[in-house]
Write a structure and sequence with these properties.
9 strands
Length: 211
């Protein structure tokens, strides 16, 4: 399968080199929301050094690998068929990593015992696009988050077809268990930002934990 490399500039040194695949589903290219979230991490708004970070629906691994270059201990997760691409990208960028990074299979809605205890951060870029994946994704988020876990969800607002309805349903379901706070556009990276790409800081409602 043909691959093509996407370079992602970094403030602190050489660019990340991310292989993509010309065929094979949605996880095989670096989506704009992944670029925006990766560059937001570089602003330093969230301290990542020595923090435990888990990326859901990692695809090429762009966001998680960026976090690992900022000192985080990262697990990038996606389906079995994307593991090879994740491994290639981890290998290609390992000389830039100052924390650690590994790839694992995580299918939304399934058991997450091996990913416990809850990480400090969960990263998600463009994970909201299939209606049938909303409930498994929400179950996984609930199972993975502790009272101090910060979830950063970056998504591109799409106006075509069922997208607005799926998005609305996702945030409606999310608000049953989580507090949401939108990160203002002027806090995104100066260059990697867009009016239709949003970053939301998501935390569990404290009432959902036994006191």
């Amino acid at each position: 399968m043909a691959g093509f490399v996407r370079e992602l500039e970094r403030r602190g040194g050489p660019a990340l080199r991310l292989e993509q695949r010309a065929a094979g589903g949605v996880g095989c290219v670096v989506w704009d929301a992944a670029l925006v979230l990766a560059k937001f991490l570089e602003t330093g708004a969230c301290p990542l050094a020595r923090r435990d970070v888990l990326e859901l629906g990692a695809g090429t691994g762009a966001v998680g690998i960026m976090a690992a270059t900022l000192g985080a201990n990262v697990t990038v997760t996606d389906l079995e068929e994307l593991q090879e691409l994740l491994m290639v990208n981890i290998e290609n960028n390992k000389h830039l990593v100052t924390g650690s990074v590994r790839a694992k299979v995580l299918k939304w809605g399934e058991d997450v015992t091996e990913f416990q205890p809850p990480p400090d951060y969960i990263l998600m870029a463009d994970c909201i696009y299939y209606e049938e994946s909303l409930e498994p994704l929400l179950k996984t988020l609930k199972d993975l988050t502790g009272p101090n876990t910060c979830v950063l969800c970056c998504y591109e607002q799409r106006t075509m077809g069922k997208n607005p309805e799926i998005e609305r349903k996702y945030f409606e379901l999310l608000q049953m268990d989580f507090e949401l706070e939108k990160i203002p556009l002027d806090e995104h990276d100066e260059e990697y930002r867009s009016e239709d790409i949003h970053i939301v800081n998501i935390r569990r409602k404290q009432t959902n934990f036994p006191s």
